[in-house]
Design goal:
Elements (H helix, E strand, L loop, with lengths): L11 H9 L1 E3 L5 E3 L19 H4 L9 H13 L6 H8 L13 H4 L9 H25 L4 H4 L10 H5 L6 H16 L4 H18 L4 H19 L2 H21 L1
Antiparallel strand pairs: 1-2
C-alpha cells in the first residue's frame, strides 16, 4: 500500500512538513508528521531513482523448486504460533514512521526518541518515501499473490483487505528494515553486528507472519541495498546523514 495515495494534493501547510519532515515549536520541541498528507517525501528524484521492476528477477515460477521451498517455509512457520518469535513478528509489522525505528532500540543500545533525534527521524522517514518510489513498479508489475491468499492459513495479525490485494514480491518491510540497518550500522559501527542482525530479523518476521514468502524477503533486501546505494549519491541525504549521526552519538553518549 502506498503511503501517498493517488489524487491527493498536499495543502501549503502539509507541504512544509513534507519538505522538512519536522518543525520546531517555540519550546524547541520538534513536531512530526501524523499521516499520509504531511508525511515527508523521499530524497530521490522519481525520474532518476532505481526501478525495482527493472533490476529484480521475477518471483519463482509456479512449480519450481524455489516456489516449493517458499511454500514449505510458509507452512512450517505456521507452527510458531504462540512462540515468542511469533509475537516479535507481530510487533515487527509496524513500518510507519516516526515510531517504527524503535525496533532497533536494543541493537543500538539506546532508546530511539524522535524528539531527541529529529534529523535522524526525518531521514529514516524520508527513506520510506523513497522505498515507495523504488518498489511500487515491481509490486504492481509482478502481482504475486501473498502466501495467506494463495493458501489460507493463520497469520500473526489479521490482514487488512488492502494487504491481501497488494503484491507479495518484493517485501517492502524487508527492504526498509535492511536499508535502515545499513544506514544505522554506518552511524554506529561499534553496534553494526547487532543492528544488521536486527535488520535481517525484521524482514524474517514477514515470513513468520505468513504475509510474504522467503524469496519476497530476499528480493526486498536487494531493493533496500539499492535504495541505500542511490542515497549515498544524494547530497541532501549525505548532509542530513552527518547531522543525524551526531544526534545518535549524543544520545548514545548519555546512556553510557
Amino acid at each position: 500500500m502506498s503511503i501517498f495515495p493517488l489524487g491527493r494534493r498536499l495543502t501549503a501547510a502539509a507541504l512544509a512538513f513534507a519538505l522538512f519532515g519536522c518543525v520546531s515549536a517555540p519550546a524547541s520541541t520538534p513536531t512530526f508528521w501524523t499521516g499520509f498528507r504531511d508525511h515527508p517525501h523521499g530524497y530521490l528524484d522519481k525520474a532518476h531513482a532505481p526501478n525495482a521492476a527493472a533490476f529484480l528477477p521475477p518471483p519463482p515460477p509456479a512449480g519450481s523448486l524455489r516456489e516449493q521451498d517458499d511454500i514449505a517455509i510458509y507452512r512450517a512457520t505456521r507452527a510458531l504460533k504462540g512462540a515468542s518469535r511469533w509475537d516479535q513478528a507481530r510487533t515487527d509489522n509496524e513500518i510507519e514512521t516516526p515510531s517504527a525505528p524503535r525496533v532497533f532500540d536494543e541493537a543500538l543500545g539506546v532508546d530511539f526518541t524522535p524528539e531527541k533525534m529529529p534529523t535522524l527521524t526525518r531521514l529514516l522517514g524520508r527513506m520510506l518515501g523513497d522505498l515507495e518510489t523504488i518498489q511500487t513498479p515491481a509490486k504492481r508489475g509482478f502481482t504475486r499473490p501473498r502466501p495467506f491468499v494463495a493458501e489460507p492459513a493463520e497469520t500473526c495479525f489479521p490482514p487488512e483487505p488492502w494487504l491481501a490485494a497488494s503484491g507479495s514480491y518484493p517485501s517492502g518491510h524487508s527492504a526498509l528494515g535492511w536499508a535502515w540497518a545499513l544506514v544505522l550500522a554506518e552511524m554506529a559501527p561499534d553496534r553494526a553486528d547487532q543492528i544488521l542482525a536486527r535488520g535481517l530479523a525484521y524482514g524474517d518476521s514477514r515470513m513468520i507472519c505468513g504475509v510474504h514468502y522467503a524469496s519476497d524477503v530476499e528480493a526486498g533486501r536487494i531493493v533496500g541495498a539499492a535504495l541505500v546505494t542511490a542515497l549515498k549519491a544524494d547530497p541532501t541525504f549525505q548532509a542530513d546523514f552527518v547531522v543525524a549521526r551526531r544526534e545518535l552519538a549524543q544520545a548514545r553518549a548519555v546512556t553510557r
